[in-house]
Structure formats: C-alpha cells, structure tokens
Write a structure and sequence with these properties.
This protein is mainly α. Helix content is 55%, strand content 10%.
Length: 135
C-alpha cells in the first residue's frame, strides 16, 4: 500500500475526499462516479484512477448497485496523518514550526507547496527505479 502522505499529496485525490466529506455531511449514502466527474470537471478515467488509489489506501469504500458504484469516505486512515500533525499544532490548532512559533500564512503555504513537490518527486523517483532492469 502507498504511504498515506503520498496518497493525499495529490490535489485531485484531496478534491475527491473533500467532495465525499461534503456529501456525507448532507446525509448522502455514497456518491456516484459520474457525480464526482461532473463536480470536479475531470475525465472519467482520471477519476477512476484516483478512486482506485483511494480505495487501495482504504480512504474510500465502494457500494455496487447494478452497473453503478457509489463511493463513501472512510476517514480512519487519516488518523495517521492527524497523529503526525499534532506535534506541529499549538493549543488553537495553528501550525507551528519546530521551535513552537506560529507560522505566518505565507510560510504555511510555502511549506504546503514544498511538501507537495517533495511527494511528487518521491513518487516519480520510485516509479523510475521500478522500471530499471534487475528490479
């Protein structure tokens, strides 16, 4: 299974998770792939690819009804992310640096951008290494 941080590093997957969270808070018992495609403006193959990754990470569950699949959020794996983040938050859930100083919005944004780039580079490197002969 992919590292949970690698899974949620992708913006499209985070958008899918947010959509499923929003829909579950309104009482929906799952969201169809076609609804996700429409809401995100992404192609069906792209959404299906991301849903597969989310399913393998146990972040979503799927219910089949005939030809249709309905996806729901399964947030339990995000506990690992929450556990990792807690030391970086103060009592008001404000991001802090390791010295305990609250990060300005610009620094928090920069950290997010760098984190995404690092996760993307790690993923690309791992895929490249898998394609090397003898691996």
């Amino acid at each position: 299974m992919a590292d949970i941080f690698d899974v949620i590093a992708d913006g499209t997957r985070r958008d899918i998770l947010r959509l499923l969270l929003d829909r579950s808070s309104t009482g929906e018992r799952g969201t169809s792939v076609s609804h996700i495609v429409t809401e995100l403006g992404a192609s069906q193959p792209t959404v299906s690819k991301h849903l597969k990754v989310l399913r393998e990470a146990h972040l979503v569950s799927v219910r089949e009804e005939g030809q249709h699949r309905y996806y729901s959020l399964s947030p339990a794996p995000l506990d690992e992310v929450d556990d990792w983040l807690v030391p970086f938050l103060d009592e008001n859930d404000v991001a802090v640096d390791p010295a305990g100083v609250a990060l300005p919005d610009s620094a928090a944004h920069a950290a997010e951008v760098v984190g995404r780039a690092a996760a993307s580079a790690k993923h690309a490197l791992e895929n490249a290494l898998k394609r090397l002969p003898g691996r």
